[in-house]
Amino acid sequence: MITKKAKFLRVLNNVYFKKNEPVSIVHFLTNRCNARCSFCFINFDDPNTFKNELDLDEIDKLTKNLGSSLLNVNLTGGEPFARKDIEEIAKLYIKNTTVQSIYVTTNASLPDRVESFAKNIINYDKNIELTFQISIDDMPQEHDRVRKISNLFQNCLDTYQRLKKIDPRVNPVVSITVNHENCENIEKIFEYLTNECEVKSIKCTIVRDEGVYKTPDKKKKKIFEAYSWLTNKINELQKEGKLNNYNTNSLQGKLHNQKDKISWELIKKMYLEPKYISPCHAGSLFGIITAKGLVYPCEILEEKIIGDLRKNDMDFMKIWKGSIAKKTKEFILKTNCNCSYECALTYNILGNWRYQPSLLSSIIKY
Ligand code: SF4
Ligand code: SF4
354: CA distance to ligand 2 center in Å? Predict the structure, then answer.
């Protein structure tokens, strides 16, 4: 997982003790998207939403100032492939930072672009791992209706199958977001994907209130039940070897597998009755960069902006180690901030002593 690029001891020291450099960043490359999902957090009605994206020169500078512990970047949006320079952006992260893996979240409406990106990036760096999270939330017709793009479901499958054939370092994963539109139908969708579409890697997330989206209260219980069913089913099929979300022969794969299980259980405990379970390391090990260059600890605390990269000469670490970041971290710890945001939970689990025995035993017994 950790190669000589990101120095092993330095990363461990940061993750378990110092906690002052990001290990993972979510970078929203754009707010543009050709879909219009009913549960999207983006305000597509505001024309300012699409303006002032960071350009390549700015991203070049930014990536030279991301510390020495960064292991992963999640390139997302909007639809990240709406940016024609996504390949150059990924190369800047590889060239200028210590990332080992790049995670790309896509609606997969542009299979040619996604495939060409994957091929070019793995040829650019022989060690980089690429994961593509392909969003599929419903049966074909419904998926196309909810996302408002014709033939989208077919394009998702096409993208998934093309990526599967490229290289073991390219991992396409279908991701189901359990939401108010699909929660009644989750079993049918899952069976269809696994039996009819031959999808062999499926993950899931639970929809959350964010931006302009608010979960209808009357649907919350149903969403919770569907999420519980789905996570149990994924777990069961992974044990039977019918789903392979990770390479369980690798240390990294085993750890991520166990981390997912812990994360699902935490979310189930917190979703209907939000409560504090363990400290959150957003703002420490994990952070967000918006399309316009604003830095936040996470996607949820929208009022807790830590800094504006453009006003700080694109120097991320200056913002990350500055006084506002320090106050934000104190706020998160003092208020026992809690939520069901999976990205942050990943690094909360990996950076928390409490979960280490479970992670370690998964390595030994799997
Ligand atoms: S595909 Fe993603 S970014 Fe695009 S509208 Fe849907 S949820 Fe929003
Ligand atoms: S608990 Fe959730 S809302 Fe609070 S800082 Fe962490 S990710 Fe953000």
Answer: 18
Taking the CA atoms of the chain, what radius of gyration do you get in angstroms? 19
How much of the chain, in percent, has pLDDT values that exceed 70? 94
Q: Rounded to whole angstroms, how far apart are CA atoms 209 and 191?
A: 27
3-state secondary structure of 286: strand
Angle subtended by helix axes 86-96 and 56-63, to nearest 10: 20
319 burial type by CB count under 10 A (0-12 exposed, 13-18 middle, 19+ buried): buried
Ligand nearest to the CA of 177: 1
Q: Which ligand is nearest to the CA of 345?
A: 2
Ligand 1 mean position, distance from CA 42 (Å)? 8
Nearest to 175, CA basis, from 192, 162, 188, 156: 156
CA of 150 relative to ligand 1 center, distance in Å: 14
Q: What is the pLDDT of residues 276-303, one digit of tens each?
A: 888 899 999 999 999 999 999 998 899 9
Tell me the Ramachandran region of residue 314: left when phi exceeds 0, alpha when psi lies from -120 to 50, beta otherwise. Answer: left
